[in-house]
Amino acid sequence: VRISHGSYKGYIGNVKDSALSTRKVEPHAKRQRITVNRNRVVSIKNDSQTPRCGYMIRIDLIR
Predict the structure, then answer these.
(1) From CA 31, how far away is CA 20, in angstroms rounded?
(2) Distance separating alpha carbons of residues 48 and 32, to the nearest angstrom
(3) Is 0.90 surpassed by the pTM of this model?
(4) What structural domains does the chain harbor?
């Protein structure tokens, strides 16, 4: 999942626990679980939707 709002905006991680209104997410960048409102979490369907660092660098060099 990707966190879409708040201080952790842009972080990508795994959902470790789910409640009615919140999700406990473990971001890949931090090995701690954070509680996020379920409206602030977006599902990522596959890796092709996640930009890679090398891809972003190539775009900057072309421009």
Answers:
(1) 24
(2) 26
(3) no
(4) 2-62 (2.30.30.30)
